[in-house]
Amino acid sequence: MHGGLGNQWAFRELKRLIAEKNSSLIFLCETKLRDFNCKRWKVPLGFSGLFVVNCEGRSGGLILLWKEPFNVTLFSYSSGHIDSIMQPRYKRWRFTGFYGHPEANNRHISWTLLRRLSCMHDLSRLPWIVGGDFNEICFDSEKLGGNPRPLGQTRAFRDVLDASNLQDLHAEGEFFTWVNRRASPNVIFERIDRYVATFEWRILHPAARVHNLDFYHSDHRPIFIELGRPQHLQVRTSVCMRIEPHWTTEANCSDVIKRGWNKQNTSLSLPNRLAKCLELLRTWAGDMLRKLPLQIINKRRQLNALRTHDQWALAGNLIGQLEREVEMLPTKKKLYWKQRSRVNWLAHGDRNSKYFHACASARRAKNHIRGLVSSHGDWCIDTGSMAEIVQNYFSDLYSSSNPSEEDRLQILNQV
After folding, report:
1. Least confident of 59-63, 105-109, 131-135, 294-298
2. pLDDT band (50, 70, 90) for residue 7
3. Nearest residue to 285 via CA among 261, 259, 260, 250
4. To pair with 112 at 20 to 30 A between CA atoms, which of 20, 28, 130, 340?
5. How much is the mean pLDDT over the chain?
6. Cα 104 from Cα 44, distance rounded (Å)
7. Are 143 and 179 in contact (CB under 8 A)?
8. Residue 296 to residues 16, 300, 326, 329, 330: CA-CA distances in angstroms?
9. Cα–Cα distance measured from residue 275 to residue 349, given in angstroms and rounded to the nearest whole number
């Protein structure tokens, strides 16, 4: 992900992406932050490891965050890269977060760095993936609008990738990853953010998929890599009806309550009025407010559709309006979850982030069943096997072992 994380909206977007994608490894470039501003992120974002390369003035800055299943060994770093070894539960591999020099005249420095990284004797045999903002395109087709790049400039980038045995990992989603955010006809789109990997890394992760995500509060799209598709099992329980604080922000909330109370009907008792209000509010909440996450997704999709290279010129003020709506909807979602939190959450809230997120993590861990051990000692994670284990356990627990009359009398005499 790219840039300028001192902005509260950008940081909120980062938190949303991490929660949505359940990311275990994050590389951020051009953060425009220093070490002391980033250390407080590790616990709120749910990571166990953090490494920061400070910005220089008001530009640059790199961050690497990680957690289980990764055990990271840092090997080298500079203002343009963080080189590390990943040691998950299977074969280890090498990850390099890369940031190309923003000035075209000095970009040869970045290519020299990438060549040197590929030739490191201790690491050259490991499967290797490099990703980030290279600040350069490979081909003319990766730029739309503006003047074309000099031929030698793009060729130098291709040559260094070939020399380092790095191949482009083609991404799903919108092709261009950067936009200069100007109005037509001065708008420019480019594909300067990417991930490249060696043949060995691609063999190690044959199911890996790259996605160019939507961009908000940045002119770069975040890039998300799925190494595989592990099954995560969640057991959902029914949720009781609660009055939500953000209902008062909805214009038709009072109308729903008035219909349920039915003031004109004097024969209705208080319990009947309350029951009717509850019934109507439950239906209304199901139709309107419980679809809040879907509203956020739909608004983001609309915004992303307008911010593509072929729709930007026609969007006008609609992009700004949708951005404001997207910013306000998570506020309602935050109130929604605060209502479900304990009293001490409401007392401390985000003023004590460590406490808040420690409670959230502990509660999530308690409410999540990843697997069960059968009576034969087998670890099961699929829904059918877990349901069978639970059924057999309680069947055995409440089934009689047909004790003899003597055994029954002996037990009853102790009561």
Report:
1. 294-298
2. low
3. 250
4. 28
5. 80
6. 37
7. no
8. 11, 6, 6, 6, 8
9. 33
Taking the C-alpha atoms of residue 1 and residue 133, their distance in angstroms, rounded to an integer, is 9
- Mean pLDDT over residues 339-355, rounded? 52
Instruction: Provide the edge-to-edge strand list for the sheet that holds 25-29.
Output: 25-29, 62-66, 49-53
Rounded alpha-carbon distances, angstroms, from residue 104 to 108, 120, 134, 151: 8, 26, 11, 13
Give the pairing of strands 171-173 and 178-179: unpaired
Q: For residue 220, give the DSSP letter.
A: B
Q: What DSSP assignment string belongs to 162-207?
A: HHTT-EE-PEEE-S--EE----TTS--EE--EEEEE-HHHHHH-TT
The answer to whether the beta carbons of residues 249 and 332 sit under 8 Å apart is yes
Q: Are 139 and 154 in contact (CB under 8 A)?
A: yes
- How far is 170 from 371, CA to CA, in rounded Å? 35
The residue whose two tokens read 């209304």 is: 284
Beta bridge partners of 26: 65
Lookup: tokens for 270: 């208080």
Q: What is the largest CA-CA distance in the chain?
A: 97
- What value does the mean pLDDT take over residues 348-361? 53
- Helix, strand, or coil here: 54? coil
Helix, strand, coil distribution of the chain in percent, nearest 5: 45, 20, 40
CATH fold for the domain made of 8-226: Deoxyribonuclease I; Chain A (3.60.10)
pTM for this model (two decimals): 0.58
Structure tokens at 121: 């004797």
410 secondary structure, DSSP code: H
Q: 13, 59, 67: which is closest to 33 by C-alpha? A: 59
pLDDT at 267: 78
CA pair distance 166, 403, nearest whole angstrom: 72
Rounded CA-CA distance 94/118 in Å is 11
Counting Cβ atoms within 10 Å, is residue 271 exposed (0-12), middle (13-18) or buried (19+)?
Answer: exposed
Whose structure tokens read 């992900």?
A: 1
Dihedral angle of Cα 174, 13, 6, 71, to the nearest 10 degrees: -90
127 near 86, Cβ under 8 Å? no
Continuous segment of H or E residues that includes residue 335: helix 318-339
Say what the pLDDT of residue 237 is. 47
What SS3 string covers 30-99?
CCCCCHHHHHHHHHHHCCCEEEEECCECCECCEEEEECCCCCEEEEEEECCEEEEEECCCCCCEEEEEEE
Average pLDDT over residues 69-85: 93
Residue written as tokens 């994608």? 21
Q: Where are the domains of the chain?
A: 8-226, 245-349, 372-412
As given in the structure block, the two tokens for residue 247 are: 């209902």
